[in-house]
Amino acid sequence: MATTAPTSTAAPPGPERPGGRGGGGGKGRRAGLPGTRADRWTAPGMLAPFGFFYLVFLIGPLLYLLVAGFFNTSLVKGGLGDWVGLDNYARALSTEEFWASLWHSVWFTVLTTVPLVVLALVLALLTDRFSRGRWFFRLAFFAPFVLPSSVISLMFMWIFADQIGLAQSWAKFFGSDSPPSWLGDPDWAMISIAAATVWWTIGFNFVIYLAALQEIPRDVHEAAALDGAGPWQRIRHIVVPMLGRATTLVTVLQLVASLKVFDQIYMMTGGGPDRATEPALLYVYNTGFTEGRVGYASTVSLVLFVMILLISLVWFALVRRAEKES
Amino acid sequence: MRDRPPLPGTPLGGPPPAGSRTAPTRRALLRAAGALGATAAAGGALSGCGTAIGQGFTGDSGPASLLNFWNPFTGGDGARMVEMERDYRKRHPDVDLKATTFVWGDPYYTKLTLATLGDRPPQVAITHLSKIPTLAGAGLLREIGDDELAAHGMGADRFDQRAWRKAHYDGALRAIPLDTHPFVLYVRTDIAKKAGLTGSGGELADVDGPEQFLDALRAAKEVTGAWGCSIASTKDPSTCFRLFWSLYRQLGGRLLADEGAKVVIDMEAAGEAFAYIRRLTQEKLVPTGVDSPGAITLLTSGQAGFLMDGVWQILAVQDSKVAFDMLPFPRIFRDAPYACHADSHGLVLPKAPSPDAQRADRSLEFIRSLLDASDAWAGGGHIPAWLPTQESEAYRKLEPQAHYAAASDGAAYDPGAWYSGAGSSLHNRLGDVCASVLGGRTTPTRGAARIREELRELAATPSPL
């Protein structure tokens, strides 16, 4: 920080000076180079590879999904199958399992999003206060995030195991005579998976918060301190409001990620016991791949897609309104 | 740490600073990579697409010496299969046998199905015979003719008849059975001895019959101080289904008719089977909430005297070096001929786009070689379907494998339906209900009702076939 401040003021304040980050800078630089006409194709050219994969692997399948939902498409047969119109939609909306799986996705999202946002903020605030050894906490909290979901699932299957697992030993140590079967009890299974997920993924939100915290200028803190605000008041009235944008970002990313949960549940419980942890994506997988009903599974995925889209949009709209008001 | 726009040292018309030298390097790199890719593609085209990736793109079936074989065998089974493949390679150095292993269950069947649909199937593949109605019904399997079989010395009379019949669909042979693998009872002989369950010759006393079996479990529990018998009920619906199906079939019940289109459940029998299952845990003889490795650990660590599981766990138990034996799943009910859940592995020829890609002759030769090596396969617990091996002196003396060989006579396969078979929805749904009854969360009567609901729903679902 200390070294960059003087150099940036020393930079030539010409008309070409980049106004902000990224886009502005690029434009200014290009204008100064020879061969502007050829450069017109630079941006599209650089986007082309990504655009190609985007079309082939995202838009294409999405269109197929949309179409397949109107047919009795089968995994074990070629082609789209028989036209069934809205039958798949009617079937999905009238099936109890479909609603149950949606509810499981939502329940998992509630169980994970709240702690993943709040805890990440708390941990980031605490870590930010360390001037020495901050790297250690940054590393410690972020480290689990780099592990693949399969490793996490295996680890926690051992921790949550009955008779021999660490979690039951701890529960006994803290005075519970007959601790629940963490992954074997329908009431506990989802909570156990959510706990594992929080431990595993908190690093990502934590890092975003930490970065946002460092963006808050020291002067604001100093001014508040001079005005007599204590540490707690500074956090409440200055830090948390100034982290608003980071919180919006973290929450939306987390909502979307949690609604899409699949891997750890597939590996840890397979949707059981008694389908108590079957989220919407696992339901899609079961109907599409185990039963081979691709048409029906497409319908369910589309409904889920629209739902996630709506939730994200509504959330963004709410936040934008709140921001405008304040 | 934070990236700043490169303000200092980058005057717009000036000489490029040190950092910008990366630009030409990157371009050169891209050019080089492109050239490399083009060369590789051209090379691939010239060499007849020798690589698997090349074949995937072109649909080419590879050089004639190539034989692709797919299987879902990991763990002990996988090790045995690798041994048998090595044996084949040694005797057929001219064939390039390429064996690929996938994850058991629906991931495997999905890949096999999609590869066959996409005209890029392996020449030979393993399947469960309970999956034949689905795979053959979708037209993915090549029929195997009598003359072809005769040419390789594989007549109907040389196979276990139950498995042989199960390998047919629509009157034609679609698979060559390799084995039968029933649901069996593992016994810790040292614990059984201490519990007074063995006779003078060391053989296990009769545990057949509802009360006798519970008595045996009680005696074993006395010795272990923990449990009488263990079974995987967490995250293992297939095992739970096997328990239910074994007991229910011993009561003579049927679940489905008309290839799964009709539900013919016997509610009374289902209720009785569940009532017995519940007794196992109600009297604390069997633990709930144990997964598959956990159930085996309970047996090998001496916390349970018995284990109900498939024969393929034999290697896991053997590895722990404890004294144990294996028996057919006990005959609890006597209302019908003896029955225990079983399935079989079979070898199939997925339909290839051309006879050239099919290589039927070479594939059958390979299958025959696996059958001839099935004594190695029997070591992994499976009862060989190939009678020359099953009736051999060596197999009769193989312990404890030979002790449960009779179980294949009572082999109760999955009810036929597009949604049944290994790792199917039928296993998952009915297994879940059974686990719930076992854990005491659902009453036996309610369990039977739930099974009927699940079946009705599955039967009403339009078939993807």
Automatic annotation (TrEMBL), chain B:
Pfam families per the UniProt record, alphabetical: SBP_bac_8
Bilayer-spanning residue ranges: none
Name of the protein this chain belongs to: Extracellular solute-binding protein
InterPro entries documented for this protein: Bact_solute-bd_prot1, SBP, TAT_signal
Source taxon at top rank: Bacteria
Provenance organism: Streptomyces armeniacus
Region (Disordered): 1-23
Residues annotated as signal peptide: none
Pro residues: compositionally biased ranges: 1-18
